[in-house]
Automatic annotation (TrEMBL):
The lineage of its organism: Bacteria, Pseudomonadati, Pseudomonadota, Gammaproteobacteria, Enterobacterales. This is Mobilization protein.
Length: 64
């Protein structure tokens, strides 16, 4: 994987981290249904990131 692909992966990870911070803020404010929606969105995003990372690992292991 080239550096631009890793940059995209890092950017996506930062977006998820911001979402987790937002969910924590929503929890503190008592907006539980909004937090639930945020967490469901984050779950989907994390699954996509896991798939991307799995593809990177497979590419690197096949190149060895």
């Amino acid at each position: 994987m080239d550096k631009s692909g890793l940059k995209i992966l890092r950017k996506d990870l930062r977006e998820v981290a911001r979402g987790v911070q937002l969910a924590g803020k929503q929890l503190n404010e008592g907006r539980l249904y909004k937090m639930l929606d945020t967490m469901r969105t984050l779950t989907g995003n994390l699954n996509k990131l896991a798939d991307k990372l799995n593809n990177i690992i497979e590419q690197k292991s096949s190149n060895v």
